[in-house]
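Support request, please re-run this one:
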Amino acid sequence: MAANRGQGGIQQLLAAEQEAQHIVNAAKSAKMARLKQAKEEAEKEIAEYRAQMEREFQRKLAESSGDSGANVKRLEQETEAKICKLKEDAARISQDVVAMVLKHVTTVKN
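Re-run finished. Output below.
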């Protein structure tokens, strides 16, 4: 009878071990499924973010290229104004510069 009980106990232990193994396998499967789902969700979010950034970039590109004619005209006007200012400044001080250069060239130092 004791041998019979020992056999029954071993059978119970083996059954419990198999049940535990099934529980562990089920948990691993659930974990892998959740990781796969999380990866898919993350990839979806990344794709949505990338598409949003691309739309924003294209919008800004369209805005800036649409204004390129206006920007060119504005830059040309600014450049012309700066050139006129430089010419005025040069004309205003050219006599002083010529006098200073002549003074230094004609002065003899020992």
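The chain is about 95% helix and 0% strand. Helices lie at 2-66, 68-106.
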